[in-house]
């Protein structure tokens, strides 16, 4: 009987241990592997047009790398997966384990339904170098507890280590089976990066050769191409972090990359693993703050909240760096990390809108939108997460612009109304009368709102 490899957010063949398992089992049985993707309407609907478009392209690439044998079935996996196993007589379904609340519930349900038919769901690997829940403090009667703070988590994560990348199985015998067909790519309305495993590897190799050495200094500069732009590929599993970590180690060994650059990059990957770990232990963090820092009455409500949120979403707050970021998001489905932190701080601490509303807008538009990374980064900025930024750390939108976009090139790229202003003066257009026709007035005064937020925080502490 064939075995089934059910792809979810691991849309690649290289370094895919679940694929290795499926192939090994199929070979032993003298059979082939069904490469399955289930187009789950619940996930598809929540992905929104940007991620739908990217996913559709990524699936097309995956299909091509299986010689056009990817079997796409549309429907609820709880029905589709058991039905497919019955159709082909499969006894096992191989997956990389899911750790987000929806994926865990889905897999447990599918596992139980398969068990009724004597079919097993086999989990090998995960989208992380170390599976969420594994890295724990040392000692204690129950073998340690989850980490609350990032830095010790990172040390323990580094010490824990990870497996070497899984070898690419040669000559996979993919089964030929009827497919409902690849999803059509909706109009994303944004300029998206090339999707698929080959594009991800190309992007990574180019970054290793040209970007990584300067990463520690350039990564905070939205006006430069200082980061790897791999978040969409990591989100969809077109590349595995284990591959990145192994390549970093060999680049350091060969002397092509300094250790401090590799360490900085490794540390960012560690944040990704930390947030996944926190969400694993606190699935409610998708919606609920992990702690409360300001009183309920601190938040804008009703029409005021709606108007402020709309100005922020559309990039017309009157603060150039914030508006540039929000327009970059709408234009490309991606935003530079430095600017994500700034716009999130601005929404919560200058506009007094709850982080959940901002997180929702991000999830609707980010090509790398990922429930663990998005919700926990928002909680970090809002001061409500585990090891979050302190609430009293309030980003100044002008200073952030002057420091991280020193010539104003990033702002001019995304805010055409400001292109008439040269140099860093673009960060304070209100100082030059008539220089920015059509650019909105500031919706709030940062200096005032900062004080309001600090007072709210004091009240919350009492
Ligand atoms: P690089 O600087 O090249 O970093 C390499 C990789 O490290 C990234 O691809 C990412 O996987 C990881 N990484 C880097 N920074 C972070 C971070 N702060 N937290 C977790 N992992 C990180 N990232 C997402 O992947 N999906 C999201 O939905 C998401 N939402 C965010 C929301 C907010 C409010 C903030 C402040 C950050 C969010 N991030 C999210 C994290 C970060 O902004 C992106 O991962 C990063 O900008 C991706 O660009 P890059 O691949 O060029 O990053």
TrEMBL record:
Group of enzyme by EC: lyase
Keywords: Chromophore, FAD, Flavoprotein, Lyase
Superkingdom in the source lineage: Bacteria
GO molecular function annotations of the record: deoxyribodipyrimidine photo-lyase activity
Alphabetical list of SUPFAM superfamilies matching this protein: Cryptochrome/photolyase FAD-binding domain, Cryptochrome/photolyase, N-terminal domain
CC cofactor: FAD
Photolyase/cryptochrome alpha/beta domain ranges (all copies): 1-129
PROSITE patterns per UniProt: DNA_PHOTOLYASES_1_1, DNA_PHOTOLYASES_1_2, PHR_CRY_ALPHA_BETA
InterPro entries (alphabetical): Crypto/Photolyase_FAD-like_sf, Crypto/Photolyase_N_sf, Cryptochr/Photolyase_FAD-bd, Cryptochrome/DNA_photolyase_1, DNA_photolyase_1_CS_C, DNA_photolyase_N, Rossmann-like_a/b/a_fold
EC number(s) reported in the record: 4.1.99.3
Entry similarity comment: Belongs to the DNA photolyase family.
Official protein name in the record: Deoxyribodipyrimidine photo-lyase
Primary gene name: phrB
